[in-house]
Write a structure and sequence with these properties.
alpha+beta; conserved putative lor/sdh protein from methanococcus maripaludis s2 fold; Elongation Factor Tu (Ef-tu), domain 3; 3 domains; 6-stranded antiparallel sheet; 6-stranded antiparallel barrel; 4 helices; about 30% helix; about 35% strand; elongated
Length: about 375
């Protein structure tokens, strides 16, 4: 036992002296090798400048091409109704007739006044013409008499014109007793019955009419995609009521102005619906094909880092990591559009990581 103990102690002392005898150069080499092994190795790429066509899915709403509530212009009783909810009507078709005796009597009264004033006007005109002709002979007619007849003629002429305008206004009011359709469409609502008093303080419309053979698909385009909409932007859409059926259209109108509340631009797509497969008022799932007006920068999705302080990409600056804040744009396959302080010449780390802090030295993978 003593021999074994002495042997172990001797061996231990020898190892300590051997370690202490290592040259300073070997220690320095070991220290240099240690940090180089911990230097991160990264793969870099360069941003691509492109202008691809990309897809964007958004909710939309189908609305009638034209839709209006019809109110009576004149006060009266409903005399007869010619249509009901669901009726197909043509432009100018009679929908209902009102009865207002006082309107008819007023029209007859102003017509009578117009005829009387017309006779007065005719008499004054003839009298003035005759007296004017007679005044051609010197001394035949006094100048004051001619002026008097001329003034009477002008007064009767003005009175007749005023009566004629009043008759036209009263006649137009009588026409308002006939309720006509403003365009081709379908009666979607009827709110009155025969005998009801309508007009003036009655705020409920007589009918609601909508044009369903043509529809408008309205889609709100978010602010960051607003400039990607052009005159030929196509759209495909589906509705829950017709599963599996895909409809197509192209841009018809672009509001252009950004809504300050929703931060979006309203667009409209005309939809032909002569077959009646769509009813209007439905919500739609729209898919648009958009394209930027100018080329933008695209990087792999893996290059982006999402943190609580923002979105960043990592690029190399003299062999060290530099974090660059960016704004996300559109996404196409495995690439995403970015806006920030980067160019196509920058070396961007392909797989971003939060562990790579600002100023960290890295080695580029070859």
């Amino acid at each position: 036992m003593k021999f074994q103990t002495i042997f172990i102690l001797t061996t231990t002392v020898s190892l300590i002296f051997s370690i202490a005898a290592c040259s300073p150069n070997e220690k320095a080499k070991a220290n240099q090798a240690q940090p180089s092994a911990k230097t991160p190795v990264v793969e870099t790429i360069r941003a691509v400048k492109d202008r691809p066509v990309y897809s964007l899915s958004l909710p939309g709403e189908l609305k009638p091409y034209e839709q209006v509530d019809i109110f009576p212009k004149a006060k009266g009783f409903i005399k007869k109704i010619y249509v009901d909810r669901g009726s197909k009507v043509k432009k100018g078709q009679l929908l209902a007739a009102l009865e207002a005796p006082e309107v008819s009597q007023q029209y007859l009264s102003v017509q009578s006044d117009q005829r009387k004033l017309y006779e007065d006007y005719q008499y004054s005109r003839q009298a003035f013409q005759r007296l004017k002709k007679a005044a051609l002979k010197n001394g035949a007619v006094a100048e004051i008499e001619l002026d008097k007849v001329r003034a009477q003629f002008r007064s009767d002429s003005a009175a007749y014109i005023a009566a004629k305008a009043k008759t036209n206004a009263s006649g137009q009011l009588e026409k308002y007793l006939r309720i006509l359709s403003p365009f081709d469409g379908t009666i979607t609502d009827r709110n009155v019955s025969v005998g009801a008093l309508v007009g003036e303080n009655n705020q409920k419309p007589l009918f609601s009419i909508a044009q369903q053979e043509h529809l408008r698909l309205t889609v709100a385009i978010p602010e960051k995609h607003a400039h990607s909409v052009n005159a030929n932007t196509p759209v495909t859409f589906t509705v829950s009521g017709r599963p599996g059926k895909v409809y197509n259209s192209r841009l018809s109108r672009n509001g252009g102005l950004l809504n300050q509340t929703t931060r979006s631009v309203m667009t409209e797509f005309d939809v032909e619906n002569s077959a009646g497969s769509l009813s209007g008022g439905e919500y739609a799932h729209a898919k648009l094909k958009l394209q930027r007006p100018d080329s933008t920068l695209w990087v792999p999705v893996t290059s982006l880092i999402h943190t609580q302080s923002g979105i960043f990409i990592l690029k190399l600056n003299n062999g060290t990591v530099q974090r660059v804040p960016v704004i996300e744009g559109s996404r196409k396959d495995s690439f995403i559009e970015v806006f920030g302080d980067i160019t196509t010449k920058d070396q961007i780390i392909k797989k971003g990581s939060e562990e790579l802090e600002e100023g960290t030295p890295v080695t580029i993978k070859k």
